[in-house]
Design brief:
By secondary structure, this protein is α/β, with parallel strands linked by helices. The protein has helices spanning about 5-20, 220-235, 250-260, 275-280, 295-300, 305, 340-350, 365-370, 370-375, 390-405, 415-420, 435-440, 475-490, 495-500, 515-525, 535-555, 560-580, and strands at about 100-105, 180-185, 185-190, 210-215, 240-245, 270-275, 310, 315, 320-330, 355-360, 410, 425-430, 445-450, 455, 460, 465-470, 530. It folds into 2 domains: about 145-165 and about 180-325 and about 470-525, 3-Layer(aba) Sandwich (D-Maltodextrin-Binding Protein, domain 2); about 325-465 and about 535-580, D-Maltodextrin-Binding Protein, domain 2 (3-Layer(aba) Sandwich), CATH 3.40.190. The strands form 4 sheets. Strands 1, 4, 5, 6, 9, 10, 11, 12, 13, 16 and 17 form an 11-stranded mixed beta sheet that branches. It has a two-stranded antiparallel sheet with strand order 2-3. The longest helix is centred in the C-terminal third of the chain and has 19 residues, at about 535-555.
């Protein structure tokens, strides 16, 4: 016990020492969240015309239209283009409501999500250099976003449709009725009876059973459902041809097709703007259709629309719908249509009063250069060298001067459209993609699309662009035959009339669309000018810059018209040389 006191002190000391030690805080594990950059692809659909009179393609006895005459041949497969894939940003025409990515009629269809970095932006209405005009309510959906071709798909049976839950618009078969509509503003007439049945295309030899056609497009939901109705009618006649349809947002469609077709895959038919075609063709990604189309068949297509698919010596696409620059007239201010530009000037001057202006015209190249063709000239030759320094070019500058006599003028402006939409302008020149916006702003029967008036020894004209159907050169044998059969079916008058109910302007001369603004647009675009097919969009930029240089020299600096055209020609040639490797 003599050490008891010493042991107690030691124990007390140890206890204090242990109690004073603090546990270091344990660090919590850091958890890295799994991020998803997947963005929804479904956008609200902006329906165009309400289908209420033209009957949907109906199942029934095969009619007699010969929309795709001529023998079908076996296409010679083209070698995949050597070298890397395109890296520059594609330039496309204006486009609206992008439909959700969805596979139709193929439960096994695999759909790649849209690019994570893609920005959903609408196509620009004016692919020119400066002050690109913003399109108000650009034309909805690829105008028939891109023509399709005959499609087939293996195996019999009823297709299973896989739809996005966001697709709420439905398209019902239209009843057979004789519509009673105003075919011309201010008057009610009964248009000709439209056939109920859509005729199938008599094939030289039917495609083998089980043929498959894959189709890619970027149509809006409403138009996609209308397209399904067309396919149903086709399958009533050719039940052994099956379809695999995929909807891809347009921001991804171009690069997606390019990559897949380059690697030997992709759809059989691509519906897309005709402006994409030249680059695709130069890189062996679309087929030349010249060997499969007869003169008789091509004669039923409006020349300007057909010209958008003619590149070099090839026919690289067929137009399923068209859009373009037209002359709009406010019926409240100017009730009658002019036959000549002199009449237009007189009407516009008489309407300029009380805060209203008779005319407001845009001199920008995209909206005015089509007049060079209407006056008997050409913008460029087949080698893309300038031809506008000509008597027709001088006539174009004279017309630009007369624009100022008729009313106000602008250069790549939206002011004209704004004032016209408010009812204060008599005439403007703008795109058919504005029809829906003007119907909303002014009322359907308060404006008209006029035929181009005469001017000098020619007439005014505007550029025509199209939604086209392309044939993938990787398509062979029975699938190719079925695809081409369906392509011709899309260009029958009855199918074109049905699609016109959804705002798509027909491209065939025998079509008789019911919506009268669509019918007026057909008449105006019939004498339009094919939008120049070029592989490099910088070529058109050089032309727009050159022509607008001529406008500036002539009307700002008061230079001689011939000098202005020569300077514009030199500017274009210098720019073209800079683009040549």
């Amino acid at each position: 016990m003599k050490y008891w006191y010493l042991i107690s002190l030691i124990a007390l000391f140890v206890g204090f020492w242990l109690g004073g030690c603090r546990r270091a805080p344990t660090s919590e594990p850091t958890e890295t969240p799994i991020s998803s950059n997947i963005e929804p692809t479904g956008l609200p659909v902006s329906p165009t015309s309400s289908p209420e009179a033209y009957p949907a393609p109906s199942q029934g006895a095969p009619p007699s239209a010969t929309a795709y005459p001529g023998p079908l041949a076996t296409a010679t497969s083209q070698p995949a283009y050597p070298g890397p894939l395109r890296t520059e940003t594609p330039i496309s025409s204006s486009q609206t409501a992008l439909a959700p990515t969805v596979a139709v009629w193929t439960p096994t269809q695999t759909i790649a999500p849209p690019s994570e970095t893609a920005t959903l932006t609408g196509p620009t209405a004016y692919p020119g250099p400066q002050n690109t005009p913003t399109s108000y309510n650009p034309y909805p959906g690829p105008i028939v976003p891109t023509p399709t071709a005959y499609s087939a798909y293996p195996g019999p049976g009823t297709p299973t449709v896989v739809r996005s839950p966001t697709a709420v618009t439905t398209v019902s078969p239209m009843p057979s009725i004789t519509p009673h509509v105003s075919a011309t503003p201010g008057g009610s007439v009964t248009p000709p009876v439209i056939p109920i049945e859509i005729p199938p295309i008599p094939a030289v030899s039917p495609p083998p059973p089980g043929s498959l056609v894959r189709i890619w497009h970027s149509w809006s939901t409403e138009r996609a459902l209308a397209f399904e109705t067309v396919v149903d009618a086709f399958q009533d006649v050719y039940p052994d041809i099956r379809f695999d349809i995929t909807i891809i947002p347009q921001v991804d469609l171009r690069d997606r097709y390019e990559a897949d077709a380059y690697n030997g895959g992709g759809p059989n038919l691509l519906l897309a703007p005709a402006e994409w075609g030249p680059w695709y063709y130069d890189n062996h990604l679309v087929a030349d259709l010249s060997a499969y189309t007869s003169d008789e068949f091509l004669a039923h297509i409006y020349p300007a629309a057909l010209g958008t698919g003619q590149y070099e010596s090839a026919l690289i696409s067929l137009p399923i719908a068209q859009r373009g620059v037209v002359l709009y007239r406010n019926l409240d201010l100017i009730p009658d249509a002019p036959q000549t530009f002199d009449e237009l000037i007189n009407m516009a001057q008489a309407a300029t009063r009380g805060g209203n202006l008779g005319a407001y015209f845009d001199r920008g190249a995209f909206y005015s250069a089509g007049n060079i063709s209407g006056l008997g000239g050409e913008l460029m030759d087949i080698d893309q060298k300038p031809l506008f320094n000509s008597p027709a070019g001088l006539g174009w500058l004279d017309l630009m001067a007369d624009y100022d006599v008729a009313g106000a003028v602008g250069l790549n402006t939206n002011r004209d459209f704004d004032l016209f939409s408010s009812g204060r302008i008599g005439f403007i020149v703008d795109g058919t993609w504005q029809i829906a916006a003007l119907e909303h702003a002014l009322g359907t029967e308060n404006f008209a699309i006029d035929s181009w008036p005469e001017y000098g020894s020619g007439h005014l004209s505007g550029f025509v662009q199209t939604e086209a159907v392309y044939l993938n050169p990787n398509t062979v044998d029975g699938d190719q035959m079925a695809a081409m059969l369906f392509m011709g079916f899309l260009l029958t008058p009855e199918v074109q009339q049905y699609l016109a109910e959804y705002g798509l302007i027909p491209t065939v001369v025998d079509a008789n669309p019911r919506p009268f603004h669509i019918a007026e647009a057909v008449t105006a675009l019939a004498v339009g000018t094919a939008y120049p097919p070029v592989a490099d969009p910088h070529i058109l930029t050089a032309y727009w810059e050159g022509l607008e240089l001529a406008i500036q020299m002539r009307f700002t600096y008061r230079d001689d018209a011939q000098v202005a055209l020569q300077s514009a020609e030199q500017h274009v040639l210098v720019r073209l040389r800079a683009l040549t490797p």
